[in-house]
Specification:
This protein is an all-alpha fold. It has 5 helices and 2 strands. It has a two-stranded antiparallel ribbon with strand order 1-2.
């Protein structure tokens, strides 16, 4: 393994690409008529979970790794006519995050930013982006199982 493959950035980007593909497989596995499914009233439904993953990933990457202002209202207003459009929006969001991180100087990962949970390094924010996807994707796997849909095989790195 070369040193280039062993950097924070390259490790994240490899995992992020696999995370994208795995989430898309999960989104595609659930029948569209089950996108409104949620196990309890307290939880988001399947579609809301997907939209939340997308929005949060874009918010964290835009806010903490660019000088652009994140437009939450514009993201929340977007509607999707069908499952294919939603899956494509997820794919695009993951690709946008990857582009942002590719364009980030690795020296910036040690920089501290103001976060609602207190000061954090950009490396911590980078880890949070992936942890957040993993958290909600795990819930989606449960939703699949509760609907007797076999989840796709796990992909780690």
């Amino acid at each position: 393994m070369t040193a280039q493959q062993n950097t924070v950035k390259t490790a994240f980007l490899e995992k992020w690409e696999n995370s994208k593909n795995y989430l898309i497989q999960i989104a595609e596995a659930m029948p569209i008529d089950k996108y409104g499914y949620k196990p309890t009233e307290r939880e988001m439904d399947f579609k809301e979970q997907l939209l939340h993953i997308r929005e949060n990933s874009l918010w964290l990457s835009t806010t903490y790794f660019t000088d652009k202002k994140f437009d939450r209202k514009a993201i929340e207003k977007q509607e999707f006519k069908n499952k294919e459009e939603l899956v494509e929006a997820i794919r695009k969001a993951f690709n946008d995050v990857a582009t942002i991180i590719k364009n980030t100087d690795p020296k910036e990962f040690k920089d501290e930013v103001k976060f609602f949970a207190g000061p954090k390094s950009k490396l911590q924010i980078l880890n949070l982006i992936q942890d957040h996807v993993t958290h909600h994707r795990g819930q989606l796997i449960v939703y699949l199982n509760l609907n007797e849909v076999t989840p796709p095989r796990f992909v780690g790195w």
